[in-house]
Design brief:
CATH superfamily of the largest domain: Sulfite Reductase Hemoprotein, domain 1
Distance between the termini: 50 Å
Strand order of the largest sheet: 1-2-4-3-12
Number of strands: 21
Strand content: 15-25%
CATH architecture of the largest domain: 2-Layer Sandwich
Oligomer: single chain
Bound molecules: iron/sulfur cluster
CATH class of the largest domain: Alpha Beta
Radius of gyration: 23 Å
CATH topology of the largest domain: Sulfite Reductase Hemoprotein, domain 1
Low-confidence stretches: 1-9
Mean pLDDT: 94
């Protein structure tokens, strides 16, 4: 059901967030005044507007119950997200962010699944200094959250060839072109004196987004087929750049991806983007704006759980989506041509860049940059980027790549990381290397159960089972989230664990490692401690019945998810006898 019809069915009552946006005076609201007030939290309308500025207001859920019982207020804290198109940042910028983290977020940072960086646990009275500091480093949090185009992802490998250079440049260009047109962010967080020359007066209404911006977020990613580490089909707009040697042929637009859903609400579901049209190189930005306009004009503004472009794509159908693009561009578009299969590459360890330099991919579990006991990831990154000429690139797998490393510095780089107790690639299982988890508890208000904090336990459990069946070094993509909103992309990959109720997960199987197929729910409400035991009969089957080179998710699909479920149920019944 498209926006107008659904709005009609529900009495045309648009969501209250629409009202906040309309009355926001171009995203200003009362943020500036509330920032100065001696309070610990923002009012709801400004909390919603803060998201456009890259900030989420939440509270520490670990201490909330105890504080409530003691009659005290829960502890409000903030997450601030830095946008880094294609995961790009200089070493100096990273070090500035790291210094801010030491001052305002307990020395901890988190690499996001969209190549950004997050501060967690920032107090309200430190928000201005944090965001101001980010801008002083010539980075921004503007548009990292909220109902606008989010961070544009792009294949992270810092390879110096025509393909990778063009994709990176396109990601940055698209990102810059899609910022909302308002002075609000600079007024509040930066200070106008930094901006020269003086800006032009703001137009009445944002020329791209209109008065109420987008119905919800809009995710864009751009990739080459052979290096799809951004999982392009999970985006609202996935762009596949096609080259003939060094020559850019054009872009295939895949539209309508998005993995969020709500348990027991059938009108919400995960969806992979569908290939819709081929776009000539010169039409890239107008075509991106055309798709954004379709989302802006057609997506649901009543029910925010249903306000994603994927539902419009299903409601209108691909031919009409293509026709809408053509109407915006005022020209016909070709159908997508055949192109090579999408593949996910492993960028961990050393790789030549193609310009005489090297890059080193370092997997970081859940993207957590922090010092914990003898494993000092934060110090390791700080030392590498201070002591060696290198720059960081953040990947959609929440890992870091050190780029532009001289041959002479390779040994030293690894030695620094080892001195800080960082686990180097090769020492971990492939299950662990490719695992993703969302933040969930204690910082996410929507979490139904744990994700990141229990990832290690879940990994040990599954690793033990895999090893017992002789498949301990299989390349398996595991994703864990604390709720079905999909932040760590649990609907793609071989195994998805989605929080159901506290301590319990639904288990999804049958996606593929290259993330071109959705997985499906096979087990409901499995207690965390029984995940390995539940998967064991499936893993045993995989070990004995798989075809040569067949991935775990592919095997599950070929064998049949119903048969897999029945096998597991039989095994449970036998064990109980
Ligand atoms: Fe929070 Fe759910 Fe996203 Fe995890 S998937 S971070 S629990 S909203």
């Amino acid at each position: 059901m498209v926006a107008e019809n659904r709005a009609e069915a529900l009495g045309n009552k648009v969501s209250k967030v629409e009202g906040f946006k309309a009355a926001s005076r171009r995203l200003r609201g009362g943020i500036s005044e509330e920032l100065r007030a001696p309070t610990t939290a923002f009012a709801e309308s400004d909390h919603q507007l803060l998201k456009f500025h890259g900030i989420y207001q939440g509270y520490d859920r670990d201490s909330a119950t105890e504080l409530k019982q003691a009659g005290a207020e829960k502890r409000t804290e903030f997450m601030a997200r830095i946008k880094a198109p294609a995961g790009l940042m200089t070493a100096q910028q990273y070090l500035a962010v790291d210094a801010l983290a030491q001052s305002y977020s307990q020395g901890r940072l988190r690499i996001t699944t969209r190549q950004g960086l997050q501060f967690h646990g920032v107090a309200k009275h430190d928000l201005y200094a944090t965001i101001h500091g980010v801008n002083q480093a010539l980075l921004t949090t503007f548009g990292a959250c909220g109902d606008v185009a989010r961070n544009v992802t792009a294949t992270a490998a810092p390879v110096e060839d025509a393909v990778h250079r063009r994709i990176r440049a396109d990601a940055v260009m698209i990102s810059n072109a899609l910022f909302p047109q308002t002075r609000a962010y600079h007024e509040i967080w930066v200070g106008d004196e930094e901006i020269r020359p003086a800006p032009k007066a703001e137009p009445e209404v944002d020329p791209l987004y209109g008065p109420t911006y987008l119905p919800r977020k809009f995710k864009i990613g751009i990739t080459a087929p052979e290096d799809n580490s951004i999982e392009v089909l999970t985006n609202d707009l996935g762009i596949v750049a096609l080259f003939d040697g060094d020559r850019l042929q054009g872009y295939v637009f895949a539209i309508g991806g998005g993995l969020g859903m709500t348990h027991n609400k059938a009108h919400t579901y995960p969806r992979l983007a569908s290939y819709v049209a081929f776009v000539e190189p010169d039409d890239l930005l107008p075509a991106v704006k055309a798709v954004l306009a379709i989302h802006r004009d057609h997506s649901d503004r009543v029910d925010r759980k249903h306000a994603r472009l994927k539902y419009v794509v299903d409601a209108l159908g691909l031919p009409r989506i293509k026709a809408e693009m053509e109407r915006h561009l005022d020209k016909p578009l070709a159908d997508p041509p055949a192109f090579p299969a999408l593949r996910i590459k492993d960028h961990s360890g050393w790789h030549p860049q193609g310009d005489g330099k090297w890059y080193y991919g370092l997997p970081i579990l859940s993207g957590r940059i922090e010092d914990k006991g003898k494993v000092r990831v934060a110090t390791g990154l700080r030392r590498v980027l201070s002591e060696i000429a290198a720059r960081p690139v953040f990947t959609p797998a929440q890992d870091v790549i050190f780029a532009d490393v001289d041959l002479a510095d390779k040994e030293r780089l690894e030695a620094i990381l080892e001195e800080e107790g960082v686990i180097l690639p090769g020492a971990e299982t492939l299950l662990r290397r490719f695992a993703l988890a969302c933040p969930a508890l204690p910082s996410c208000g929507l979490a139904l159960t744990e994700a990141e904090r229990v990832l290690d336990d879940i990994l040990v459990d599954i690793e033990t089972v895999l090893k017992r069946h002789g498949v301990g070094d299989e390349r398996i993509a595991l994703r864990v989230t604390g709720c079905p909103n999909g932040c760590a992309r649990p609907s793609v990959g071989d195994i998805g664990l989605v929080g159901r109720i506290p301590g319990h997960y639904a288990i999804y199987l049958g996606g593929d490692f290259d993330t071109t197929r959705l997985n499906a729910r096979v087990f409901e409400r499995v207690p965390m401690a029984e995940i390995g035991r539940t998967l064991e009969p499936v893993i045993a089957l995989f070990a004995t019945e798989r075809h040569e080179g067949e991935g775990f998710g592919d095997f599950c699909r070929r064998w049949g998810l119903d048969r897999i479920a029945a096998t597991a149920e039989r095994a449970t019944a036998n064990a109980a006898e």
